[in-house]
Amino acid sequence: MTDRITKAQRRKNMQAVKNKDSKIELLLRKALWEKGYRYRKNYSKIFGKPDIVFLSKKIAIFCDSEFWHGYDWNKKKQEIHSNKDFWIAKIERNIERDIEVNDFLQTNGWKVLRFWGKDIETNLFNCVQKIENELLSKVNI
């Protein structure tokens, strides 16, 4: 099946997709900042360019949107009707890349935390608590 919208409209839609400072990132960052935590954002010197990084604690945090990172993928890929071959390949590569990033960072001593967008929006306190627990468990001695 071909795309349901024009090429120009698809281009406009895709240009509007943010790769940083998304709503879920801003929510989580603001909550951490208000608690006094200081971090690097979208730190390109770390493999995978984590959304939030605590360098001294070696903690990398990713805020994953459900569509782009394949939440409940086996079910969701059945719902794609437009340009199916492209989107399935794209999302599956994103899932593979997330695994590669996790493996690389963990192998190099990093703690990786990933949060789904819906969890950040509905359980922000729990997400912040998980980050705080990790930060406190890595107290510098």
In short:
This protein has 141 residues and is α+β, with helices and mostly antiparallel strands. The chain is 52% helix and 12% strand.
Please provide a written account of the structure.
This protein has helices at residues 7-15, 23-34, 66-69, 73-76, 84-107, 117-122, 124-137; strands at residues 40-41, 52-54, 59-64, 111-116. With 141 residues, the chain is an alpha+beta fold. Strands 1-2-3-4 form a 4-stranded mixed sheet, sandwiched between helices. A hairpin with a 4-residue loop joins strand 2 and strand 3. Helix 2 (23-34) crosses helix 7 (124-137). The longest helix is centred in the last third of the chain and has 24 residues, at 84-107. The radius of gyration is 17 Å and the shape is elongated. The N and C termini lie far apart (59 Å).
Structural class: alpha+beta
Number of contiguous helices: 7
The fraction of residues assigned to DSSP E strands is 5-15%
- Report the count of strand segments: 4
Distance between the termini: 59 Å
| Coarse morphology | elongated
SSE ordering: HHEEEHHHEHH
pLDDT averaged over residues: 89
Low-pLDDT segments, ≥5 res: none
